[in-house]
What we know:
By secondary structure, the protein is an alpha+beta fold. The chain has helices at 13-24, 70-83, 93-96, 110-114, 135-144, 161-174, 178-190, 220-224, 231-237, 249-253, 265-275, 289-295, 373-385, and strands at residues 4-8, 30-37, 40-48, 64-65, 194-195, 262-263, 280-281, 284-285, 300-303, 310-313, 318-319, 335-338, 344-348, 353-359. It has one domain (4-385): DD-peptidase/beta-lactamase superfamily (Beta-lactamase, 3-Layer(aba) Sandwich). Helix 1 (13-24) packs antiparallel against helix 13 (373-385), helix 2 (70-83) packs parallel to helix 6 (161-174) and helix 5 (135-144) packs across helix 6 (161-174).
Amino acid sequence: xxxxxxxxxxRFTAVREEFFRNFxxxxxxxxxxxxxxxxxxxxxxxxxxxxxxxxxxxxxxTLVSVASTTKGMVALCAHMLAERGKxxxxxxxxxxxxxxxxxxxxxxxxxxxxSHRAGLPAIRRTLPAEALLDWSAMTxxxxxxxxxxxxxxxxxxxAITFGHLVGEVIRRVDGRTVGAFLREEVxxxxxxxxxxxxxxxxxxxxxxxxxxxxxxxxxxxDTILADPDSVSGRTFLNxxxxxxxxxxxxxxxxxxxxxxxxxxxxxxxxxxxALARGGEIDGIRLLTPAAIERAIVEQSSGxxxxxxxxxxxxxxxxxxxxGGVFECGPGQRTFGHPGHGGSIGFADPDARxxxxxxxxxYVIGTARHxxxxxxxxxxxxxxxxx
Length: 386
């Protein structure tokens, strides 16, 4: 019998109720949801199972792979280095990564990597499957690649390559991998679970990711992957990957910063909880308010060359967009990042609110059958604030 565990302040009872309905009506198997309001933990609930057989309960400390929700953490690391004066987002990438200057890329600024304007969403040279787990292979291939469009002229979602591009700049500037920087400068001080590269000692806490049920009608993926040799096709199919890779120790151990972060709802919400209130929570400061304001200035908006639908980006963070892929309540300056399958983390600086939701049951919504799990929770959160 399904039970929802955790904490929920009475004001937010409707959030807990919608979370329950996600299991009974919207297909969730295991999930957690968390909300911070002005630094206070007001919702922290979890339920369901961490495995396909539904024999292992989802617990307070269960982690799950959250796909592109990881990108928000990568962006945060870059902005922390920028605020410290170690990284100039408007300087050429080649200043920090000389090999990147190949194939006419010598003038591309770091900011275009963050805002998906660099024209490098896909690697042109066909790579073997094992290259995805090989940092040097991926970054060397990106360094030699020519852009797919004139850099700066358009934007297109750098689904996998975002993490290697921005992550390599972070590594060249700081000396640490993005996973190590995140752990030492962000999550360890905050006591927040968010890993890019899961330590073997906590591997058993990772939930099994379950594939999406077959959709009843065509999805955006039918359009994106129709031509495997197009920029969209190669973005997601090169290097190729087996659907089961996400549940292996090799995937969890690797640093694929655009796509393989592991977290709980509490972990991602706590980080955004700091950003929602000017960059600080419980005496730990990540960024100044001014740095956050700079980080969330719109850089790209409109038709996405890869996803073929409208997207809106700041420097690394996705921005809220009605009717887009990142619908996150009524906040006018909401920023964060969703992940393939349903997970999400975001901050609303005007409401001083942070939200995290993670799930192991991936769902692909369609026009007639949208995935309402996140929207139902977010609507309930904002209704409680009125």
